[in-house]
Amino acid sequence: MDLKLTYWTLAFVNLVVIAACLLNGVRRIRRGDVRGHRRSMGTAAILVGLFLLSYLLKLALLGREDRAEWTSGDLLLLSVHELCVAVSFAAGVTAALHARRFREALGSGPLRAARGAAQPGRRAHRRAGRTAVVGGLLALVTALGVLVRMLERASG
């Protein structure tokens, strides 16, 4: 296995951990554990940031993949994957901004507000958060397909 395949395999493992953090964050907020939710989502965001930094380093050190042997189906799958990543990233940033807004509205009050309490940005946060999680899970599934096809091309 060459260095680029090793990189993408490790990036996939990182994405698995990100997806686990997202699902854990959803589970925690459903149980009313706001701090645990914030911690899980914050961890996912940090891992996304670390991936972005690593990708810049990968480009500088190893360059881009040679897509000359990629089929149109491979390229389509990669495009769908990149779209899922972009949607998840944009929705995650939006969710974080809305969460910040309703946290600021609480001021020094309790972190855990009553369910259904009117908080500016709460509904938008939930919608954006759901979009980010679904996009992240779809990014994981499509990343698996992209990685499998890369490994198949490398082996044969």
Notable characteristics:
elongated, 4 helices, about 0% strand, about 80% helix, about 160 residues, mainly alpha
Major sheet characteristics: none
The portion of residues forming beta strands comes to under 5%
Radius of gyration in whole Å, from Cα?
18 Å
Runs in which pLDDT lies below 50 for 5 or more consecutive residues are none
Q: Oligomeric state of the chains?
A: single chain
Number of helices: 4
**Strand element count:** 0
Structural class: mainly alpha
| Shape annotation | elongated
Mean pLDDT: 91
- Percent helix: over 70%
Order of helices and strands: HHHH
N- to C-terminal separation? 12 Å
Write up this protein.
The protein starts with a helix and ends with a helix. 19% of the residues are buried. The model has no long low-confidence stretch (mean pLDDT 91). With 156 residues, it is mainly α. The longest helix is centred in the middle third of the chain and has 35 residues, at 72-106. It is built from 4 helices and no strands.
In short:
The chain contains four helices and no strands.
Topology:
Layout: H1 3-30, H2 34-62, H3 72-106, H4 122-155
Helix pairs in contact: 1-2, 1-4, 3-4
